[in-house]
Write a structure and sequence with these properties.
Rossmann fold; Ubiquitin-like (UB roll); 4-stranded parallel sheet; alpha/beta; 14 strands; 5-stranded mixed sheet
C-alpha cells in the first residue's frame, strides 16, 4: 500500500514523503494512513492498495473527505480515551529517527538520571509504584535495589521480550514503534544498578522487531546513547539483541537466562534469585519490555506524576491488549481501575459475531476465564487475584456463547504438556494426565470421578510446580469448571438440555 501511494504520487507529480510510523494500536482500522495537514494529522483507514487512486482523486493529501476518512487521528474515540504514557510516541514518530524521538520527549528521563545517584534513581522508580508488566507484578524498584546492593564484578540488565502469551502484542508494538524508549529504559536501569551490559531476549517469531531493534542499537551507539560514555558521561552501557528459538517456557526468567547462556531452556530452582545470581552467575535485573519502557517517563515527569494514575497498589498505566471475538481489537493504554465490563463492552465494542459474550480470558493461555458475572472486577492486580484470576501481560481474549469451555480447559492442559520444560513432575506429568482425564469426561466416562481427579491434579500443579507454567495452568482449567459447569456435563446430557 505504501508502494502504491509512492507510485501514484510520482505519477501525479506530487511531492510526498512517506514515513512508516508503526501501529497506533487500532487494529480494525489498519492499514491506517495519516496525512499531515495544518489542522493536524487526518486519518484514513482501513486502506488497501486499490483505494489509493480514489484517495488522490478526493484530495486526501489536504485532508479532504473520503469514505475511508476518519477525521483527526487524535479525535478517534478509541485513541482519545487513552492515557498514553509508555506508548505516547508509538505510531506518532518515525521509529528509526533518534531526532524524532528526542523532539517528542525522548532522552529527557535519561538526562535527569545522569544528574542523580544510583540510589536516587532506584528510589524514584520505587516511589512511582511501577510493578513488573510481564505478569508477576513484582515491584520494579525492589528488584533494582537488590541488584544495586549486590556485590559482583559485572552486573547485567536483561530485557524479557519473549512475548508468547496469546492475545498479547504490546512488547512487539513498543519495540517496532518506539525502540529508543526501550533502549533508554535499559540504560537508566544500568546506571541505577551499576550494570554496564544489557541483553534483549527477543522471540524469533518477531522478525520485524528483531530488525528494528538491531538497527536502533546501532543508531544509539552512533549517537553516544550507548557505549563507553553515555551521552558524554562517566557511565558506560552497551547492549545487544539475542533471539530465542520459540520455547514458551523461556518467558520464565530463569529459563530465559539459561537460554541466553546457550544452555537448554529449563527452569532454575530459586533461590538463588537472578538479582543475586542471574546471567553467568552475576547480579542481574530481568524486566519485561513494558516495565523498562515505562522508566523514561517516570524519570522525566517524576515518581508522583506516574503514581497518581491507577488504584490501590496498581499504579501508573497498563497497555491492555484486546483480542479474540471483538469489534475493536487493539492496544488500549489506560490507568489501572477500569472494570472488565467497561473494557469488553465499552472499549472493545463486544463481540464481532454479534453473539453474547460468554467468557473473557485475561492473562494469556494460563489466565482464568471470567464470566459476565465477574465483569465488575476492576483491572487491578489484587482485585483479579481476589477473583481467582491474574492480569499477567494484560492480554484479553473474548469468546462468544458458541465457545465450549470444556475444550478450552482441555487446551490449557495440552498447551502446558507441549510447552513444559520437563524439569518438575507436577507440570510434566500433571498436564498430560489432565488432558487425558478431560478427554474421558468429554466421552461421558465416570464424569464425577474425572472432575474430582482434575481438581486434585490442578491443586498439585498449582502448589507443586517449579514455575508459573505448571503453577498457573490450573487457572483456566478450574475457572472454566467453576463458572461454566454446564459445559462439563456429559455431551448426551447437554444435548438433552438443549
Amino acid at each position: 500500500m505504501a508502494q502504491a501511494i509512492a507510485a501514484e504520487s510520482e505519477k501525479r507529480g506530487e511531492a510526498v514523503r512517506i514515513i512508516r510510523n508503526g501501529s497506533r494500536g487500532m487494529v480494525w482500522l489498519e492499514p491506517l494512513v495519516e496525512v499531515e495537514t495544518p489542522a493536524g494529522r487526518v486519518a484514513y483507514g482501513p486502506v488497501e492498495a486499490g483505494d489509493v487512486t480514489g484517495l488522490f482523486d478526493a484530495g486526501f493529501l489536504t485532508g479532504a473527505p473520503h469514505p475511508k476518512a476518519l477525521g483527526l487521528t487524535e479525535d478517534i474515540p478509541f485513541l482519545k480515551k487513552q492515557t498514553r504514557l509508555t506508548f505516547a510516541r508509538v505510531g506518532l514518530i518515525d521509529p528509526m529517527s533518534i531526532e524524532d524521538y528526542e523532539a517528542n520527549g525522548g532522552l529527557a528521563g535519561l538526562r535527569k538520571a545522569l544528574a542523580m545517584t544510583p540510589s536516587e534513581i532506584v528510589q524514584t522508580v520505587t516511589e512511582s509504584g511501577l510493578r513488573g508488566r510481564g505478569g508477576a507484578g513484582f515491584p520494579t524498584g525492589v528488584k533494582w535495589k537488590t541488584v544495586l546492593e549486590a556485590a559482583g564484578p559485572q552486573k547485567y540488565i536483561v530485557c524479557n521480550a519473549d512475548e508468547g502469551d496469546s492475545g498479547t502484542f504490546a512488547d512487539r508494538m513498543l519495540m517496532e514503534g518506539d525502540p529508543f524508549c526501550l533502549i533508554e529504559g535499559m540504560v537508566i536501569a544500568g546506571i541505577a544498578t551499576g550494570a554496564t551490559k544489557g541483553f534483549v531476549y527477543l522471540r524469533s517469531e518477531y522478525p520485524d522487531a528483531i530488525g528494528v531493534m538491531n538497527t536502533a542499537v546501532e543508531i544509539a551507539r552512533e549517537n553516544k546513547l550507548l557505549g563507553a560514555s553515555v551521552l558524554g558521561s562517566n557511565h558506560a552501557f552497551d547492549m545487544e539483541i539475542r533471539v530465542g528459538a520459540g520455547a514458551y517456557v523461556c518467558g520464565e526468567e530463569t529459563a530465559l537466562l539459561n537460554s541466553l547462556e546457550g544452555k537448554r531452556g529449563v527452569v532454575r530452582a530459586k533461590p538463588p534469585l537472578p538479582a543475586l545470581q542471574g546471567f553467568m552467575g552475576r547480579p542481574t535485573v530481568v524486566n519485561n519490555v513494558i516495565s523498562l519502557a515505562s522508566v523514561p517517563v517516570i524519570m522525566a515527569r517524576g515518581a508522583a506524576y506516574y503514581r497518581d494514575f491507577g488504584m490501590g497498589r496498581s499504579r501508573g498505566t497498563i497497555p491492555i491488549q484486546i483480542a479474540g471475538n471483538v469489534k475493536h481489537g487493539g492496544l488500549f493504554e489506560v490507568a489501572f481501575g477500569l472494570t472488565l465490563g467497561e473494557i469488553v463492552d465499552g472499549i472493545a465494542g463486544s463481540t464481532a459475531s454479534g453473539r453474547p459474550v460468554k467468557a473473557v480470558q485475561v492473562g494469556g493461555p494460563l489466565g482464568a476465564y471470567f464470566p459476565r458475572a465477574l465483569f465488575d472486577t476492576p483491572f487491578d492486580y489484587e482485585a483479579f487475584t481476589a477473583a481467582g484470576g491474574l492480569i499477567g501481560h494484560a492480554g484479553i481474549v473474548v469468546f462468544d456463547d458458541s465457545a465450549d469451555m470444556l475444550k478450552q480447559a482441555k487446551f490449557a492442559f495440552e498447551f502446558c504438556a507441549i510447552e513444559s520444560c520437563g524439569k518438575c513432575t507436577p507440570c510434566r506429568i500433571g498436564a498430560v494426565r489432565g488432558a487425558e482425564t478431560l478427554a474421558k469426561l468429554e466421552q461421558g466416562i465416570e464424569p464425577e470421578k474425572q472432575k474430582a481427579l482434575v481438581a486434585d491434579l490442578a491443586n498439585t500443579m498449582k502448589f507443586g510446580s517449579l514455575c508459573a507454567l505448571g503453577g498457573f495452568t490450573p487457572y483456566p482449567v478450574m475457572s472454566a469448571m467453576t463458572h461454566f459447569a454446564d459445559d462439563f456435563e456429559p455431551k448426551v446430557m447437554r444435548e438433552a438440555a438443549e
